[in-house]
Design goal:
Radius of gyration: 17 Å
Strand order of the largest sheet: 1-6-3-4
Structural class: mainly beta
Strand content: 25-35%
Number of helices: 1
Helix content: under 10%
Low-confidence stretches: none
Shape: globular
Mean pLDDT: 81
Number of strands: 6
């Protein structure tokens, strides 16, 4: 994972990487997302508190890292998931969240409905733009 590195591009989340609205507008099977943030709680964490990281959905395979620690992985593009990041979360220094997403679109074995990367170059077909990330 690209720990402590600025990534070469940025994206406007929650738009998919294929969307022009994302600011990217292209396809990739492997995507990296990086966010550096301070403690949003502005309080010290104590043993009674847990810090949870919620994902509404990520298409398709996801690996999550916080402060260089592997937090967990999830497979599936249509369901939400949660990780308990309490043990890796810093209340005193910036936190670095890294998310890797793998989405082979129609080249993989996962369900993809009418999504097709060919619809990016031929939008007049019955397929529609894929949604990754």
């Amino acid at each position: 994972p690209p720990f402590n590195e600025n990534l070469t591009a940025s994206i406007l989340v929650p738009f998919p990487v294929e969307s022009c609205l994302s600011g990217v507008g292209n396809t990739s099977q492997i995507m990296w997302y990086r966010l550096v943030f301070n403690n949003p709680l502005k309080t010290q964490q104590n043993s009674a508190n847990s810090v949870l990281l919620h994902f509404g959905a990520v298409d398709w395979q996801t690996k999550v890292f916080l402060n260089s620690n592997f937090i967990g992985q999830h497979t599936g593009g249509y369901d939400s998931f949660i990780f308990d990041v309490t043990n890796s979360f810093s209340t005193t220094s910036p936190n670095e969240l890294i998310v890797q997403v793998y989405d082979p679109s129609e080249n993989g074995t996962q369900p993809n409905g009418a999504q097709s990367t060919s619809s990016l170059s031929s939008p007049n077909s019955d397929n529609h733009t894929p949604v990754s990330g």
